[in-house]
Amino acid sequence: MKQINLYLLDINSTEDTTGVSRYLHVLQEGLRHYASVRVCRIVFQFSPRVTFVSIKELPEGKRQVIIPLPQHPDGTMNEPFWMEQYNKLAFGLIKQVFVDDGWHILHLHTLNLIDFALLVKNQVPNCRIVTHLHCIPWKGLYNRDTQRFNRLYKQFCIDGMQQQKASMAMSCHNELKAYEEADHIVCVTENGHRFITSLLGENVNVSVIYNGMPDLNLNDNACRRNDNQRVPFRLLYVGSISPSKGLVYILQALRMLQTEGYCLSLTVAGRGQSNYLETLRKEYADVEADFVGRISLAELKEYYQTCDVGVIASLQEQCSYVAIEMAMFALPIVTTGIDGLDEMFADEVNALKVPVNFSETEGLAVDVIRLKEQIKRLINNPLLRMKLEQNARKLYEEKFCLNTMVKKTLGIYQKVTMK
Fold first, then answer.
1. How far is residue 249's CA from residue 12's CA, in Å, rounded to a whole number?
2. 148 and 183 in contact (C-beta within 8 Å)?
3. Residue 70 and residue 89: Cα distance in Å, rounded?
4. For residue 364, what pLDDT is reported?
5. What CATH number has the domain spanning 233-399?
C-alpha cells in the first residue's frame, strides 16, 4: 500500500457525542493496524476556551491539530473575503503538518471546510479531497425551519425533484462546492447516494460505505428478560433530544399503552435544549420516563444489555450509530422506516418498522398508532423479541462491523491516488 498522510477535518462546537465524532473515533481505532497510514486529526474548534492553534504529537504516530474558529463563525463563514483570509492564516500556522512524503488525503467531515481543503490542495503536492456525507444537510432544517423542510420533503421525496432544480435544497454555505470539488464522495447510505446523483448526475465519483463499529458486546445479554413476568417492561431511547428525533411520538405511544393497562418505563439517554426538554417533561409528566441525560459508554452499555426494546422514532436519519449499537447488543428494535433506517433494517426480520406520514398541512410525522401497536407486539410476544435479538446481532456482524468499514475506506484512499 502507498504511504498515505491522512487528514481528518471537521468542525466541533459541542462536547456531546455526535455521529461524526463517533465515526472519527472508530475510524482512527480501525486504522491503528495500518502502518502505511499516518493520521492527523484537524479540528476547527468553536469554544471560548480555545484561543490558540495547538499541534500535538500523539502515540502511534498520530497528530492532533486544534484551530480556533472566530467567535462569530456563522458571519465569517458566509463572507468569502474574510473566510479566505482566515483560511490563509490557519494554513500558515499549521503548514508544517503537510511536509511528509507520500500522498496527502484530506478527508472532509464538515462541508463548510471545503475552501480550506482547496487551499491546502493548491499548496501541497499529491493532495486529494474526499468529502464524507454523514447526513443530508437540508433534512436538518426540521429542527430550525420546519416550513422549508416540509416544502423540500414534498419536492424531493413525494414529487421527485428534477436534477436541474435539486440545487434548491442547498442548506449550508459552500455545500454544492464540497460535492463538486471533491475527488471522491463517500455516502453512508444508498439514500445519500441518490441525493448526490440527483445533484451531480450519475457520472460522479461517489461510493456508499456503511458506518461500522468495533464489537463492544462481550457477553451473552444474560440480563435481558426472556418471558413476560418482569415489570415494568423497559424501553430505551438514545440520542439527542430534538424534534427531528421523534421522542415526542414515543411518549405519545407509551401514554396510550399505559392507558390500556401496560406497565412500562422509558429510559431517555441524551441531551437537548433545556426549554424543549422541559416542555416534554411537563406535557408527558404522566408517562413513566427517566431522563438520565448524557451518560458514559459504560452506563449506556448496561442499558443496551438490560432493556427490553430499543425505540427509534427519527424523522430523518442516515446510518445511525444508535441503531448499530442496538443491533450489536442484540436489542429488539422498533424503528421508523425513514431514509437510512429503512435501508438498514428489514421489517419483521431484524426490526419492526413504523411508517411516517406526510401531509401538506401537517408536514411529516410518525404514525403513533402503528408505533404503539409495534411496541405492544413485542411486549406480548417473547418469541418475536428473541427472533429480533438474534437477527439484529447477525445484521451487525454481517453489515456494520468496523473492519468492513475501514477496508472499504482504505480502498477509496487508494483509488483517489490513482487519478
1. 30
2. no
3. 12
4. 95
5. 3.40.50.2000
Q: Residue 108's closest CA among 6, 212, 2, 1?
A: 6
User: In which band, very low, low, confident or very high, does the pLDDT at 220 lie, cut at 50, 70 and 90?
Assistant: low
Please give the Cα distance from 188 to 208 (Å, whole number).
Answer: 5
Can you tell me whether residue 208 is helix, strand or coil?
strand
In tens, the pLDDT along 17-26 reads 788 999 999 9
Neighbours of 217 (CB within 10 A): 17
Q: Quote the pLDDT of residue 101.
A: 86
The mean pLDDT of 409-417, rounded to a whole number, is 96
Q: Using N-to-C axis directions, what is the helix angle for 402-416 and 19-31, rounded to 10°? A: 80
Superfamily in which the 4-213+401-416 domain is placed by CATH: Glycogen Phosphorylase B; (3.40.50.2000)
Q: Which residues contact 150 (CB under 8 A, 6 or more apart)?
A: 358, 360, 363, 364
Q: Span 310-314, mean pLDDT?
A: 99
Strands of the sheet containing 289-293, edge to edge, are 289-293, 264-269, 233-238, 309-312, 333-336, 352-354
Q: Name 162's Cβ contacts closer than 8 Å, sequence gap at least 6.
A: none
Percent of the chain residues past pLDDT 70, beyond the cut: 93
Of 107, 87, 103, residue with least CA distance to 95: 87
- Which residue is it, cell 480555545? 50
- Tell me the sheet residues that pair with 41: 8, 64
What's the pLDDT band for 1 if we cut at 50, 70, 90? low
**HSE (side-chain half, CA atoms, 13 Å) at 47:** 14
For the chain, helix (H) and strand (E) counts, in that order, are: 15, 16
Same fold, 4-213+401-416 and 233-399: yes
Do residues 334 and 340 touch, judged by C-beta distance below 8 A? Answer: no
Under 8 Å CB-to-CB from 202, ≥6 apart: which residues?
none
- CB distance 343 to 331 below 8 Å: no
The structural domains of the chain, with segments of one domain joined by +, span 4-213+401-416, 233-399
Q: Are 392 and 350 in contact (CB under 8 A)?
A: yes
C-alpha cell at 375: 411496541
Nearest-5° Cα angle at 396, 395 to 400: 115
